[in-house]
Amino acid sequence: MQTESGHQRPIVTFSRLIGLLLVLTLCTPAAWAVESGMLSITAEGVTAARAIFAQHPDQKVRNDDYLAMKLVAPEYWHYSLMKPDFETGMLVTRTYRITTNFYVNARTKHMDALLMQAAENGAVQVVNLGAGYDSRAYRFRETMPTVRFFEIDLPAMIEEKKRRLAEALGKVPDYVAYVPIDFNIQNIPDELRKAGYDPSRKTFFIWEGVTYYISAEAVDSTLRFIATQSATGSSVVFDYMPLGVIQGDFKRYPDARALSFWVAYRGEPFVFGIPEGDSATYVSKRGLKVMSDLHPKDLENRYLTRSDGTLDGPCCSAFRIMHAVVPSMHPSGVD
Ligand SMILES: C[S@@+](CC[C@H](N)C(=O)[O-])C[C@H]1O[C@@H](n2cnc3c(N)ncnc32)[C@H](O)[C@@H]1O
Question: Which intervals of the chain form a coiled coil (predicted)?
Answer without folding.
Answer: none
